[in-house]
Amino acid sequence: MDWLSKHYQQQKSYDELVGEGAVPRLPAAPLFDYLSTLDSSELRARRQAADAAILAMGITFTVYSEAGNIDRAWPFDIIPRILSRREWVRIEDGLKQRLQALNLFIDDIYNAQRIVVDGVFPAEVLASSRNFREACRGVRPPFGVWAHICGSDLVRDADGTVYVLEDNLRVPSGVSYMLENRQIMKRLFPELFKSSTILPVDDYPNRLYDTLAALSPREGERPVVAVLTPGIYNSAYFEHSYLAQQMGAYLAEGADFFVSREDIVYLRTISGPQRVDVIYRRIDDEYMDPEVFLTDSTLGIPGLLRAWRRGTVAIANAPGAGVADDKVVYAFVPDIIRYYLDAEPILPNVPTYLCMRDADRDYVLSHLHELVVKPANESGGYGMLIGPRATSEERGRFAELIAANPRNYIAQPTLNLSTAPTLVEDHLEARHLDLRPFILQADKLYVTTGGLTRVAMQPGSLVVNSSQGGGSKDTWIVDEEAPCFRA
Amino acid sequence: MLSRVAENLYWMARYLERTEDMARLINATTLLLLDLPQGAEFGWDILLQVTGDAELYTEHYGTPEEGRIMRFLIADERNPNSVMAAIHQARENCRTFRDLLPAEFWERLNTLFLFVREHAGTSSDSRHARYAFLSEVISRRHALVGLLISSMSQDNVYQFIKLGRNMERADMTTRIVDVTSAVILPQDQGLQKTTTSSLWLGVLRALSAFEMYRRHVSVQVRSNQVVDYLLKDNKFPRSMKYCLGEMEVALAYLPNAGIPAEAVRRARRRLDALKLANLRPDLLHEYLDQAQKDLAMVHRTIQGTYFAREDTGFDGVPSGLLLNAAQA
Lengths: 487, 328
Description:
The complex is a heterodimer.
Chain A: H1 3-7, H2 29-35, H3 40-57, E1 60-65, E2 68-73, E3 76-84, H4 85-109, H5 114-117, H6 123-127, E4 149-156, E5 162-168, H7 175-188, H8 190-195, H9 204-213, E6 225-228, H10 237-247, E7 250-252, E8 257-259, E9 265-269, E10 272-275, E11 278-281, H11 285-288, H12 304-310, E12 314-316, H13 327-341, E13 353-354, H14 358-366, E14 371-375, E15 385-386, H15 392-404, E16 409-413, E17 419-424, E18 427-436, E19 438-441, E20 445-447, E21 452-456, E22 470-478
Chain B: H1 3-35, H2 45-51, H3 54-61, H4 66-75, H5 83-95, H6 103-119, H7 127-151, H8 156-181, H9 189-206, H10 210-216, H11 223-232, H12 240-252, H13 258-273, H14 281-307, H15 319-327
Helix pairs in contact in B: 1-5, 1-7, 1-8, 1-9, 2-8, 5-6, 6-7, 8-11, 8-12, 8-14, 12-13, 13-14
């Protein structure tokens, strides 16, 4: 059946899979060739199979609500999001460049602060940064790298330009869903994988292990790696468990560790203490060590910072790495790239107004109806104002918030996020989406092949966060120049 | 292996065993009450006595009645021993170490949990629906055990599962024998004989021991012989003695097993010394009380040796516990 001409209405947005005149873009052509052999009942059957697989595999995430924590099945759309390899290579370079520069920035901020001295980065932004950790001053982690795992959110505007929307440098999540989405697609559409040139994604766990192992302070031994999780009730617990399993690492909670008087970190095991070399922490800085940060945290490891500062254990991401994960710092990233790498940014930032600047703030306050306003330190899409969709009361409330604490707010033009066909009942409809690739850095740099595509399931909605009802798609990087493409 | 993981494995096995034991107990009791002659003076509340939840039941439901008791024992998560609560606990425990077990195990356990969640509520609508539901739970749980037995190395992970399973089994067997022995029988001599035999037949069925008992002990169901079989038989997998033996074998695979293994041997020595012929009911009850305490001690030594969270826990169990174990 012909899925596009009959059912698919293109919007003003850029569509990832479908070009002018409802013709599939080249990398998506084999997919539509294949879909045309299916009728809607067959496609529905595949979708049901996907839902059943997700339920049986227990792929879930937890939603916090007033009614208690709900364990929801992962919402998944079976139509993949497709990018050409040629375009991806450029994005990959841009992401590597960005993380490299961000790590140089963090290392500088906790040491000489050359960038502040040279007047490129304002001291007052640093002074008011909520994620700057005094306890990290003077530390030199291996390779000068602080953010070993970064999840950057990419969006595409109506003219086709891909922008970096934000860099998640604290504890970015979602990579396990990227891997599981691919597993589900391979179960559902083995025919497509047999005949096309979709690049594999499954080496991520090995690359993550190599990245972590490279940080080990003990040479010559197989490093002991542990994933530090806040526990089963965390929304990303599934991912913590998944990654530990894939890497052959311990999955441990704060109470499983202790730090000896010699500042060595151990795990409690059935045969006695086991020394730990590298901790992949999936809890925020504040909860990591009650001796240094929140003293009533039961999730952390008392003494962990002592051990880290002495270099007996490596922590990824390093404490304090979040200093660069701030929407005000974000606005400076192009300058940061130029300053440390002496190069132009490959990937552009979304134009950003900093409310701390008088001129910007005046502009923002008089253009609230066309801007997106975001708090500097929130993640997960919380506390945002989408100007064009907000009521005048909501805009009024934000004007007050901005006036009261300008440093805490930035604003960006409302982008017309790109769309992709998404299965709605028995036909395809356009839904907005973004993309979160994951970038690793230790002694080497690595970018996932594609990433996690998040899609807003409601028509017209721009909110893709899974905590707010978003879904996801498998992301295909297709090599349309390979000899066997469309064979 | 992390101490916490060992603890979760052990408890998952206990909860899974509990799920099946509870299902089996309810089905067997249903059959038993149907067979019972008029005038027998006990009813559905015997289930609450076995699980030790009578007080909690009264708090939430008041007077004992079949439908309400079933809801309490099957679907009510406020009762930590209910089928629903046990399978939920088993699943949450399993989630924390999915990677250690065959992948299929988690999928099947999760499917069983979803099945129970969907049907537990309506299963108490009729005896027929209940029987079918519980039988399905039992057979799915068997598939889980079979999967482990046939696809897992006999490594530490497996040994903690084995410890949990046998601990829970031994506990359930002693509880059932204890409660059954305390049932007040009708005065009439003839009625007393048929009631006794129905009752112990029910117990054998609840522990799926009927066929083995008939083959290895007797065609007649006599209380002394049944008790002897369920406590002291060397070969029946649900007898207390067999479970203790299995725990001792499991401990032999584990590091630092001295203290728990000694606690197991102590429990078995006491069991060996028990002479059941012509034993007065009150003495049997006293013994079973002690047996429960012995099992609790085995549990505490396992906990102290392997699950302890305090930094001092590595040298073995805290000294207080050592002293208790020596005195017991």
